[in-house]
Design a protein that fits this description.
heterodimer; A: about 220 residues; mainly alpha; 2 domains; three-stranded antiparallel β-sheet; two-stranded antiparallel sheet; elongated; disordered C terminus; B: about 220 residues; alpha+beta
Chain lengths: ~220, ~220
């Protein structure tokens, strides 16, 4: 399979024009944007954002995300206890939606990106077709984790009845948004083309990698 | 590595970098990558006209969607309603600056900028007012691709309605309908915009700005 990289071409990520690669970073001849053939230090950036997101995810679950004041008495709810409330009321579809959006999706994204980075790095049991589909699912799901933040924002504004009932956002909301935004950055900095590159080099190691290395040894 | 390949006759897959001859497509056709299955090039039907109309409708719905109250709550004889704009004011008022920023960015600012951008681009194509600055403009437009979250906000509205419906008397206002239509318009205008066609057209209109190495 011919790739743009093997022919010395590079695809502009913004306007999707093929440029022949003369320098890195290359300036696109059409939109004048600067870009690299592959995202620069893609794995390191993904890993770094990922670790940061994982760290922020811990306080996001421990602190209360929403505080409801009824007649001046506060009752705090974390993400999980909010879901539990829905289950108590018997609103299972909503409970499932919130559980998916605010617990499963961020965790799946963080773990999934760790796995992808690991697979690209080592090349063990790498199936680029499946893994790139998995990556696209992760990328698509990213913004949906913001759901909880928007729900809290709406609750704070709509339920504002002075002393009777009012809602305040807890500290967890900040950590949770940080988690979501960082996972989005992590997914953005991952380059799915690396999956295919790794597979291609793993399949044909003799022709490209080993020959140039053995020749200088014979001289010495 | 053979270096004498003219890149204008080829396309590469954005997801897996596979190289193909550039296909000639009619409107409504799309080319898919053999290796990873993602879309290579798509010629959308009537792209300029459609995105012009959708984005115009979106811009007209923008103000009602933001300013009209989305829903109201009656509890113990007190009535309170809130619009998207109130949402931000209240959040700032009570000191939740971070969520206020987020809601403003993802549910107001980014969708408006994207709508206005789509409108400006389709307007200048529709009336043949192409300028070289459009090249930079359209590139900047792509930076916001991932960050419009109107659809998530919509789901947020639904979920918070479920939360409120048990304890309170909930009333739905005109703002919600405006918001739903605004969401539809902004999604459709972004989906109707044919990027490959626009870049192609721009490149042909300004060959000097797009210094092609091989011509």
């Amino acid at each position: 399979m011919n790739t743009a990289k093997s022919k010395g071409l590079a695809l502009c990520p913004k306007c999707h024009k093929l440029n022949s690669l003369q320098a890195e970073p290359q300036q696109c001849s059409r939109c004048h944007g600067m870009f690299y053939q592959r995202k620069q230090n893609s794995l390191q950036y993904t890993l770094a954002w990922n670790v940061a997101a994982l760290i922020a995810f811990i306080p996001a679950n421990l602190y209360p995300i929403m505080i409801v004041y009824q007649l001046g008495i506060p009752s705090e709810a974390t993400i999980l206890s909010g879901i539990g409330e829905f289950i108590d009321y018997g609103l299972y579809p909503i409970a499932i939606i919130i559980f998916t959006a605010s617990i499963i999706v961020p965790l799946l994204k963080i773990i999934g990106l760790f796995v992808l980075v690991y697979k690209v790095h080592t090349g063990i049991r790498l199936k680029p077709d499946k893994h790139s589909k998995f990556y696209h699912a992760l990328e698509f799901l990213g913004p949906w984790s913001m759901l909880d933040v928007f729900v809290v924002a709406l609750m704070v504004t709509v339920v504002e009845l002075g002393f009777v009932t009012s809602v305040a956002a807890g500290p967890a909301i900040n950590y949770f948004t940080i988690t979501v935004i960082f996972t989005m950055f992590a997914a953005n900095s991952f380059d799915p083309r690396l999956l295919w590159d790794k597979k291609a080099t793993a399949q044909a190691p003799i022709s490209t990698d080993t020959l140039p290395r053995t020749l200088p040894e014979e001289k010495g | 590595m053979n270096s004498k390949i003219n890149p204008t006759f080829f396309v590469a897959c954005q997801q897996c970098d596979a190289l193909y001859d550039k296909p000639q497509l009619k409107q409504g056709q799309l080319a898919k990558c053999n290796r990873c299955g993602s879309t290579l090039i798509e010629r959308k039907v009537d792209s300029i006209e459609r995105s012009f109309n959708w984005s115009l409708a979106g811009l007209m719905l923008m103000l009602p969607a933001i300013l009209l109250p989305i829903m109201g709550v009656t509890l113990a004889g007190q009535f309170h309603q809130a619009s998207l704009f109130d949402c931000i004011l209240v959040l700032i008022d009570r000191g939740f600056f971070m969520i206020a920023c987020l809601v403003f960015l993802f549910a107001i600012a980014v969708p408006i900028v994207r709508l206005a951008g789509a409108f400006y681009i389709s307007y200048s194509f529709k009336f043949h007012k192409l300028k070289p600055s459009l090249l930079n403009f359209f590139r900047a437009y792509h930076y916001l691709d991932n960050w419009a979250m109107l659809n998530v906000f919509m789901l947020g509205i639904v979920v918070s309605m479920y939360k409120l419906i048990d304890d309170t008397e909930l009333s739905i206002n005109l703002g919600l309908f405006a918001f739903v239509f605004w969401l539809i318009c902004s999604t459709m205008s972004a989906a109707a915009l044919d990027q490959d066609y626009i870049w192609d057209k721009l490149e042909r209109a300004f060959p000097r700005n797009c210094a092609n190495e091989h011509s």
